[in-house]
Amino acid sequence: MSNPSAPAMTICLPDTLPPEKQCRPGVRRAPDRGFRLTRSQTAVALKNALRYIPATLHDALIPEFLEELRTRGRIYGYRFRPQGHIKAKPIHEYKGKCVAGKAVQVMIDNNLDFDVALYPYELVTYGETGAVCQNWMQYQLIKRYLEALTDHQTLVMQSGHPLGLFASAPDNPRVIITNGLLVGLYDNPEDWEIAVQMGVSSYGQMTAGGWMYIGPQGIVHGTYNTLLNAGRQMCGVPVDGNLAGLLFVSSGLGGMSGAQPKAAKIAGATCIIAEVDESRVKTRHEQGWVDVVSDDLETVYRTAKTAVKAKENTSIAFHGNIVDLLDFLIKKDLNVDLLSDQTSCHVVYDGGYCPVGLTFEERTQLLANDRPRFKRLVDAGLKQHYELIQKFTAQGTYFFDYGNAFLKAVFDAGVTQVSKNGVDAKDGFVYPSYFEDIMGPIFDYGYGPFRWVCLSGNPEDLDKTDAAAMSCIDPDRRSYDRDNYVWIRDAKQNKLVVGSQARILYQDAAGRVSIALKFNEMVRTGEVSAPIMLGRDHHDPGGTDSPFRETANIYDGSNVCADMATHCFAGNAARGMSMVALHNGGGTGIGKAINGGFGLVLDGSEQVDSIIKSAMLWDVMGGVARRNWAGNPNARQVAVAYNTQNPNGDQITIPHLADEAKIAAAVNKLFAGTIRSSFI
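Structure (tokenized):
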């Protein structure tokens, strides 16, 4: 059958069948997600995958794609993957008609690097399901579009599918991305799973499908800040001190959670991190991000006890289940100062949480073959996990939910007493999200995970940008600025780079603008050898609406609203960011967050200077403005100062604060029956 669309397309996949590819032994693979489509849905899924490929090749690919769907729960199109190790190359080695088109290719390839990606053959960067796109046919077509992209076009991406190139202007975005957006009635994990198996949706997580992931370094800084400030607030650590002599225990050594031992070590703590996947343990040990590896609980216990006593910042990986670790430590009466969890509980029944009593391999088999039993075991494991947390906190341990929907998963497992109101999760949980007590007040000032990538791939360029960024920070302004100054000062010696030559540095609005303008000047004058890609994690003051994480410290009822992230996305597009993204799910799961991010190519032009001054301020201050309106004092302080000091005439609406005592008295009277509405 001929393809009537072929003459109309100049950018398409070729009509030659690529050779079958061999997967490299030892590289992590995504588990079989289970085949659950109906007969009619299966037919649609197959047609959807074949849409990318000339009809002359369909006979050969139909059985191959059906076998992938049956055995892996997805059509990945492995045959279309480039052979070998995908890595971010220097920007000049990419084909393209504009700098942004080549820069975005650098970022995509970095997301799929064997050293960076969680499941590189399945296009999953981190978070168990956070993907660059759905399949390798999309990857190939995206690359072709980016090679053809000009400064007068925009590539439109919808859940991994490149919709096409559309005419635009040089000050418009070059790429617009959405992932996993679902109509409200169907905005749940079950319907999303059907959509993704049919090849029409994709889980972008945050910077995976937004193509701005920079390896686990991207979360090390946030974890470092979290642990430092948890120690200061909960353990009496001086504002200029570190966590020497404290023990931090958690779980997870994946793409995001793998940052925990590195961050704890930089912060000065002893830590134990449990991980069931031996390949992840080995990866972090080979990278030098964990010092000691053991599957023996007694060895782990003695090593930690000795290190705490000596105030050594030793990081320990326990190859085993966190529940077994906590049960052993509580029986040994080892004092744990800080306790958390960073397994992928946003996809708790899709392999993100391994039940106690199962090996990692057994978990993978059950995931594919017996989902109902797997779910029962997950629920039982979460209950046991929660009971152990209660025992530790009764002894004085500070436990915090690290934004991975752990406490929501415990609630969904049937432990209703974990919620504050005992009925639902709208009022939060009996244990705080790290955002409520620790990072939320910092985000209210506008600080967040600002980041950049030296597109030359040259470590010397990264050194120069580190020094330039440090010169823009006043360490005496706030304690957070001092922490950030120390972070960037020591970044190189802490060996944070995995994959591309990238850096993360928490900064507020003024800091980001200052550093971005400095970097653009360095590109303009040739002080660095190639353009720089600027961005941030979506996990930012204005980037994400999620009541279980980023908006957990917003108490005016708007924590469940998604206006902020949506406006952040729209405003960044209007102001000319090079790449803008809007996703469903984030780090807490489908239906639990809307999040947006950006990428900005610093090419040295004056046009980019203008975008920095407009878009960078909007990106941060839009979030600060919303947090101020919710009544958060740090955000109110920043908003008031912005209104009186900004030179561009902006104004943020400042709330008039009500007297809490008067409110309480009036409400008490109402519910005591002494006030009756005229409408009753």
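The chain has a mean pLDDT of 94. DSSP finds 22 helices and 17 strands in the chain.
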